[in-house]
Design goal:
This protein has helices at residues 4-32, 54-62, 65-96, 102-111, 117-130, 143-147, 154-165, 169-177, 182-193, 195-210, 214-219, 228-238, 243-263, 265-275. By secondary structure, the protein is mainly α. The protein has two domains: 1-52, no CATH class; 53-275, MetI-like fold (Orthogonal Bundle).
């Protein structure tokens, strides 16, 4: 049956989706324009007069993009793994065990979401500096200074706790009767059932780590250690604000995020619904 209200909602959502894509389309248009075209022309031209891929090949040759991608991938991959492990470990007792102060601890963890990282950035930097985790002194090549401050966060703990609450307790009781200990229940029963929530957390963590600019720009001093956002920002001074190269570099940096999201897309919606369970 024809539903005008549902049709209106779909039209509105499609319109908002198109509006959100406009910056990306403009970025792609700029990256595909030849040097002869004026990218600041008015009215703006979304469709290039002459399509070219020289900007992509040029930026790839001029800067060590492969090294930037490798650095970003290492940092993002390890950050995702640590977040999945620590968030799941911290969330399990908050969801499935009874102990004094559990509610206070949970709300205290949630309260940290309201504290912006910029507020604690200076103390964290001093701590990282004292521990010799910056790229100039670290035996780990500087990766530890980028990864450890983001190894776990309150959002991940909250998401995994809500996912754990959706699992029937009868499964744990059956596992206990079969002789499983707490760790075996967590690893063999709970974690496999929370794959959608883990995938959702992995997507959010990967996107956040891959696009992080402020913290790497403070911690990193060696160009060989630059991640993609820092390396792309370096294009502005290196090429005197060659916006075609900057746009091409930004497009290249988006591709891994899209690939990672698409690979976990089938779990993403399920994980969001699982994490929305109320107590």
């Amino acid at each position: 049956m024809f539903n005008k209200q549902k049709l209106s909602a779909h039209i509105f959502l499609l319109f908002m989706s198109f509006v959100s894509l406009i910056p990306f389309l403009w970025l792609l248009s700029t990256a595909l324009k030849s040097p002869e075209e004026n990218i600041f022309a008015y009215p703006p031209q979304f469709i290039p007069q002459t399509f070219t891929l020289e900007n992509f090949s040029g930026v790839w040759k001029q800067v060590p993009f492969l090294a930037y991608i490798a650095n970003s991938f290492i940092v993002a991959f390890i950050t995702v793994i640590l977040n999945l492990i620590f968030s799941a470990l911290a969330a399990y007792p908050l969801a499935r065990m009874n102990f004094r102060g559990k509610t206070i601890i949970f709300y205290a963890i949630l309260a940290t979401i309201m504290v912006p990282f910029q507020v604690i950035m200076i103390p964290v930097y001093l701590l990282v500096l004292k521990l010799n985790l910056v790229d100039s002194t670290s035996t780990f090549g500087g990766y530890a200074g980028l990864i450890l401050p983001f190894a776990v966060n309150a959002f991940g703990i909250f998401l995994m706790r809500q996912a754990f609450l959706s699992i029937p307790k009868e499964l744990e009781e059956s596992a206990l009767i079969d002789g499983c200990n707490v760790f075996q229940i967590w690893w063999k029963i709970i974690i496999p059932l929370c794959t959608p929530a883990l995938a959702t957390l992995a997507v959010f963590t990967f996107v956040g780590s891959w696009g992080e600019f402020l913290w790497p720009s403070i911690v990193l001093t060696k160009q060989s250690m630059y991640t993609l956002p820092v390396g792309i920002n370096n294009l502005q001074s290196m090429f005197s604000a060659n916006w075609r190269y900057i746009a091409a570099g930004a497009i290249i940096s988006i591709i891994p995020i899209l690939a990672f999201f698409l690979s976990l897309q089938k779990y993403f919606i399920k994980g969001q619904a699982q994490g929305a369970l109320k107590d």
